[in-house]
Amino acid sequence: MIFDVITIFPEFFNGPFDYGIMRRGRENGLIEIRVHDLRDFTSDRHRTVDDRPFGGGAGMVMKPEPLFRAVEAVTNGEPDLSVLLLSPQGRLFDQPTAREYAEKPRLVLICGRYEGVDERVAENLITDEVSIGDYVLSGGEIPAMVVVDAVTRLIPGALGCEQSAERESFAGGLLDYPHYTRPAEYRGLKAPDVLMSGNHSEIERWRRHKAIEKTLRRRPDLIRGRILSDDERREIEDVLRTMMNDE
Ligand code: 4FV
What is the pLDDT of residue 163? Predict the structure, then answer.
């Protein structure tokens, strides 16, 4: 999979992709990350990428021309490419969206800066506007990294054999179950015996129960509105009953 990143700070991407899964993915050719300097697509000797906002107001706005030129050069007429603008006005990025993008051969990511990007970019140049959350960052570079990382992990072969994306948080729409490792007891704090029982069906049942419990306590929104199978409904009722008894 190819990630084309368009930014005014290309060096910003030196480093974060040099570790772990991202590094392995690049080394074994699973992913390729191409970082493009937006200023290379300007035509004035000051390599201008921003200007004052029409209608006045604080700050600067990213100009349309360099972005249109950059995307057209990078996509080079390749049809139906996904061109993402990272911005707080976008749809909230989540695991199902990451799965959707991981199916694609290529993603172009536009990193905004300043107060924002000329609206004609969002209206005419991109396929998706994506937000990583309801807060304002100083640039789209970190959101672009979030998307590249979350998507890369879902590419078959990206995760080592010891990991499987299928089992992770949100994979089944639930939060992850609690994890424990040695020592079995630390400062009097014990890891649950069931995890050391070797009884794998019991362990699976405990983990599922805990994942549902944690989701009900912290993110009931992840369960609300979901189409539940009878089994799932029974399980959730079980967990709710246990939670009531424990309270
Ligand atoms: C953002 C977000 C974000 C807004 C103005 C960059 C900044 C500046 N992008 N999810 N939240 N972008 O805050 O994606 O241009």
Answer: 58
